[in-house]
Automatic annotation (TrEMBL):
Signal peptide from the UniProt entry: none
InterPro entries: FAD-bd, FAD-dep_Monooxygenase_BioMet, FAD/NAD-bd_sf
Keyword GTP-binding in record: no
GO molecular function per UniProt: monooxygenase activity
Name of the protein: FAD-dependent monooxygenase
Length: 397
């Protein structure tokens, strides 16, 4: 194994590329977008376990500098009343790094720039159309512009709608719609009832709303709620920002007034993004081709681990390729090592996501009284996720 082709230049691809360069491999990343996706998405959290997977690459400090540490989670009901909290102020001392909130586009650009600096070849504007696995010694990738590339290995890091997955595993299950749409944005000049560094979570009357205030006072927010129409593809293609903003304002009309103030103060509404997950994949690899991150196991953002799991995946796959000389065996070892952790966090994401569904008055009453108990359990589970630490020198043979 000397040459590796990575399809996808978002989060997983550049991280994997940097690890594989450490093995002395020739690495190329092929990305369909014309440039780094600096405008993609809203924001996300890189958990301590994800930050620790970046640390040996020399990237964690740059991510920390570009983002903001989360000190706690605060949960309120539609009346604005506090119903629970999770203290995360000790994460840096306990796990080495805190949960770091960062704009997704900024993270994409930072990782791509660092991968290129470390010698990873990144080719923008090339869209994969075919994968030829018929050759015993290499795999061939063909692109929309008529070009092609051969490599000893091909790794699909191309996300939920993975083109690599559809080509090598055509019978794989389709992503499942969770029932929630995601919107987001960035606003300023509105007073939110928490200090900087707090993730505020609102169980609204008709939708869920989250807000995070940065040290500069900028408000990063997201909305999760049911779609107006079952035709998700039409909604995505023909979304009207003015109409969508009005709809969000109506959905949060009975919630604390600051929510509507934040939505109105947002210059550009981001979304909608239907939230999907992908589970029960029969396998993650075929011959000399393997899937990684969301291409293999997408989950809703409710567990706050999607990006961090992809970073862990990259490290473990590099270990397996380092220690196991046969591609098929290395990929099998990677999948065996990762499935138990991925499955456990996937279940947590589904549980957390189901709690965002709109409730009736009786359900709200019980939720408000039982949530502190469940949050104690959730805090313990969250700490267990955060404490997971991979060591590069660990053998996978």
């Amino acid at each position: 194994m000397r040459k590796v082709l990575i399809v996808g230049g978002g989060i997983a691809g550049p991280v994997l590329g940097m690890w594989l360069k450490r093995l002395g491999l020739e690495v190329s990343i092929i990305e369909a977008r014309p440039t780094a996706a600096v405008g993609e998405g809203a924001f996300l959290g890189v958990a301590p376990n994800g930050m620790n997977a970046l640390e040996p690459l020399g990237v964690a400090a740059a991510v920390a500098a570009a983002g903001s540490a989360c000190e706690s989670f605060q949960f309120i009901n539609r009346k604005g009343e506090a119903i629970g909290s999770i203290d995360r102020s000790g994460d840096a001392s306990a796990f080495g790094r805190p949960l770091t909130m960062i704009r997704r586009g900024q993270l994409n650009a930072l990782l791509a720039e660092e991968a290129a600096r470390q010698g990873v070849d990144i080719r923008w504007g090339q869209r994969l159309v075919a994968v030829d696995e018929t050759h015993p010694s290499h795999v061939m990738a063909r692109f929309e512009d008529g070009s092609e590339a051969s490599a000893d290995l091909l790794i699909g890091c191309d996300g939920l709608r993975s083109r690599v997955r559809s080509l090598i595993l055509p019978d794989a299950p389709a992503p499942r719609f969770t029932g929630l749409l995601d919107y987001g944005g960035f606003a300023q000049g509105v007073q939110v009832p928490v200090p900087p560094g707090v993730n505020l979570m609102l169980f609204g009357r008709r939708a869920f709303f989250g807000a995070f205030v940065t040290p500069s006072g900028e408000i990063w927010w997201f909305h999760n709620g049911a779609p107006e129409s079952p035709d998700l593809e039409a909604l995505r293609k023909h979304s009207d920002p003015t109409r969508e903003r009005e709809r969000l304002l109506e959905l949060h009309r009975e919630d604390p007034p600051w929510v509507s103030d934040v939505i109105r103060a947002t210059p550009k509404l981001l979304g909608p993004w239907p939230i999907y997950d992908l589970h029960a994949m029969p396998r993650w690899h075929s011959g000399r081709v393997c899937l990684l991150g969301d291409a293999a196991h997408a989950m809703s953002p409710s567990a706050g681990q999607g990006a961090s799991l992809a970073m862990e995946d990259a490290l473990v796959l590099a270990q397996c390729l380092r220690d196991i000389p046969t591609p098929a065996k290395a990929f099998a070892a990677f999948e065996k090592a990762r499935r138990p952790r991925v499955d456990a966090i996937f279940r947590a994401a589904r549980r957390n996501g189901s709690g965002k569904a709109v409730s009736g008055a009786v359900s709200e009453w019980f939720r408000d009284r039982l949530l502190p108990f469940f949050l104690r359990l959730g805090a313990s589970g969250q700490s267990k996720m955060y404490s997971y630490r991979l060591e590069w020198n660990q053998s996978r043979a």
